[in-house]
Amino acid sequence: MSGTTFVFTRLASDPHADVISTALGVSAAAPFTENDIGKGVKLGTAQNYVAVADGDEIEGVVVSLEPFTVNEGFKFGSVQRNKRVEAVVGASQAGNIAVGALVVADIPTALNTAGVLRVKTGTPATHKWRVLRIITGTGNTGSTVLIERV
User: What does the radius of gyration of the chain's CA atoms come to, in whole angstroms?
Assistant: First the structure.
């Protein structure tokens, strides 16, 4: 018997992934760019998704942007609202994050600045994501984790 190790990974081609097309950003004057792919979002008030703020529940992650706009200037793209995504443990995390911990958004990277979803432990009520695997590090700030919608 071999000593092969199994680890959870992203689901690259899951036919059940909930990916939606949507307008992105708080206004036409503050559009998302390619640098915002991989960042967390929540539902906005103008038929759109906006960047999460510190402590927000994560409703999805931006997975693509199209080269055109909708709704008088909003960027148009896709948001993944379930399954698994990679994230980074944010600077606000107290101690190490643990496998199984529920997470919320940590202080995000500024709009149009390269970065990914940053998370910390929290108590989401509606949009629950949990840490499935610690990919790099020990669960401390800067560690890469795999999170899954539950």
Answer: 16
